[in-house]
Design a protein that fits this description.
The chain has about 120 residues and is an alpha+beta fold. The protein is built from three helices and five strands, in the order αβββααββ. The chain has a five-stranded antiparallel β-sheet, covered by helices on one side. The longest helix is centred in the middle third of the chain and has 17 residues. Bound molecules: guanosine-5'-monophosphate.
Amino acid sequence: MAYDPNNIFARILRGEIPCKKVYEDAHVLAFHDIRPQTRVHILVIPKGSYASMDDFSAKASEAEIAALFRAVGKIARDEGVAESGYRILANAGADANQEVPHLHIHIFGGQPLGPMIRPPK
Ligand code: 5GP
């Protein structure tokens, strides 16, 4: 998947579109999902131009990878879901229905989350 510099999260990173920020550091931005699917639903994104987990895992630096995963854990603790439990999810590509072509990790929590995934029909 080629990186589209005009995707919505690239525009949020450039400050062209507002977001409800919960966390930021040199490599990471995190904000509330605009259409939350659970009581806590946060998106954690790298600041680098990575379309999905596919190119992030292949091309990102150790520092970027560490920062993203450290941030996910910190945000979950700060949002109060680390004790009760939470789920992280990153859709990559067409079969996963990835909507926004900039890597994002969803954090879902604040309630029981049900089964991990729907079985195929
Ligand atoms: P995906 O299906 O790509 O894994 O998830 C994309 C997510 O981005 C969806 O949960 C959707 O609600 C969220 N989203 C789409 N546009 C915006 C936006 O402009 N702002 C925020 N905060 N979230 C967005």
